[in-house]
Specification:
Layout: E1 4-6, H1 9-12, E2 19-26, E3 32-39, H2 47-59, E4 72-78, E5 82-88, E6 94-102, E7 116-122, E8 125-130, E9 135-139, E10 163-167, E11 175-180, E12 187-200, E13 205-221, E14 227-232, E15 236-241, E16 247-252, E17 258-266, E18 269-276, E19 281-285, E20 290-296, E21 303-309, E22 314-319, E23 324-328, E24 333-338, E25 346-352, E26 357-362, E27 366-372
Parallel strand pairs: 1-20
Antiparallel strand pairs: 2-27, 3-4, 4-5, 5-6, 7-8, 8-9, 9-10, 11-12, 12-13, 13-14, 14-15, 15-16, 17-18, 18-19, 19-20, 21-22, 22-23, 23-24, 25-26, 26-27
Length: 375
């Protein structure tokens, strides 16, 4: 039986300083739809090449020698088809902010530029989806800089020359979400208007397509990758068996569109967190297929971003009320709250467990970083 938990208004209406603001990065765009952390360890950055060439540049600039051994790269998608990148160094500084790709103008569309909604990565592939009914795939192992004899050739070009291909999951259907299959690096899922598509990156072809009659706002594999979840305008979460494409169960409890999901673990219990237009977060027990916690009065508007700190068992959420909340799933209490985290509606949040940092993206064109101060 589900349990409803209402947070007191006195707790929600005051800032709780478990999250400390560190940096705000303003991008040359509006509406930062999505952003991800990447780092040297996952193979997206060639550590030796990066250090060697960065230090070579710094050696030519007196007093500017730095250690780039722990560089985190941030990639972000925005309106008008822009893909941004910048580096966050060990000392906290922001380096090398640049636009690495802009969608070409297409006069056939009422929007001249494509809006990039979702970004993910799959080992050597960078995946971007958007409003042009396409998924763009950037093959990262081919991103070596071309030879250039100009003296002013900038190191920033190292990671911008991506080899790109794209596929169309379904004609005339926007693509809202992506999910990579970590056990098979060449397999991804995409979801959008009335369709779910499984794509083979290696052979660049669609393997399977599932049709349904809803707008699928988010798609998410479970922790064991034997089935996946979709959510959207049906107000429910639908689970599909991965190999047979069969619907195996559905989770009902939200009163409006379900916008985001995240896997989490509470002790030995595997849960799924979902956020909705109804302003609530529901924690679902996947094994027994029911909602065991409904968090109400947590946000005052739609919840668009959810991520999870697996070490400290904290759910972070963001939404249209411009606030960021940190929810301890052991006590089901709000332990972190920033009322006006950014100037406009917050679209997504991402947590980096290695650095204990949270970043959020907003309609105001910025990405805000926070340090989680957890005892």
């Amino acid at each position: 039986m589900s349990e409803q938990i209402e947070q007191s208004s006195s707790t929600i209406n005051q800032d709780i300083n478990i999250l400390q603001k560190t940096q705000n990065v303003q991008l040359n765009s509006s509406w930062v739809y999505d952003c991800i952390f990447t780092n040297i360890k996952n193979g997206l950055i060639d550590k030796n090449k990066y250090n060697q060439e960065r230090l070579q540049i710094d050696n030519n600039q007196e007093g500017n020698k730095q250690n780039y051994s722990n560089v985190y790269q941030v990639l972000a998608t925005t309106r008008k088809g822009k893909l941004f990148q910048f580096d966050k160094c060990e000392d906290g500084s922001i380096q090398n902010q640049k636009t690495i790709y802009t969608s070409p103008i297409n006069e056939e569309f009422y929007r001249l530029y494509e809006d990039y909604d979702t970004i993910d990565y799959q080992r050597r592939y960078l995946l971007v989806s958007g409003s042009r009914k396409k998924v763009h795939v950037f093959k990262l192992q081919n991103n070596d800089r071309q030879s250039n004899n100009q003296q002013n050739q900038d190191i920033q070009e190292d990671f911008s020359l991506y080899h790109k291909f794209e596929y169309i999951p379904a004609p005339e259907r926007n693509v809202y979400s992506l999910s990579g299959y970590k056990k098979h690096s060449n397999k991804i899922l995409s979801s959008g208007q009335s369709n779910i598509t499984l794509y083979d990156l290696q052979h660049q072809k669609i393997q399977r397509r599932i049709k349904n009659n809803i707008e699928n706002a988010c798609i998410q594999y479970n922790r064991d990758y034997n089935f996946f979840f979709t959510c959207g305008t049906s107000k429910e979460i639908i689970a599909y068996e991965d190999r047979q494409n069969k619907q195996i169960f559905s989770l009902k409890g939200h009163e409006s569109n379900v916008l985001r999901m995240a896997n989490l673990k509470n002790n030995n219990q595997f849960l799924l967190a979902s956020g909705s237009h109804d302003k609530s977060i529901i924690l679902w027990d996947i094994k027994y297929q029911h909602n065991n916690k409904i968090i109400q009065n947590h946000h005052t508007n739609a919840i668009f971003g959810i991520d999870y700190d697996h070490i400290n068992q904290i759910v972070y959420s963001t939404g249209w009320d411009k606030s960021i909340k940190a929810l301890d799933i052991k006590s089901f209490k709000v332990i972190g709250n920033i009322q006006r985290a950014q100037q406009d509606n917050i679209i997504t949040c991402r947590y980096n467990s290695q650095t204990q940092e949270l970043m959020s993206s907003s309609r105001d064109g910025s990405i805000q970083f926070y340090k989680a101060n957890i005892a």
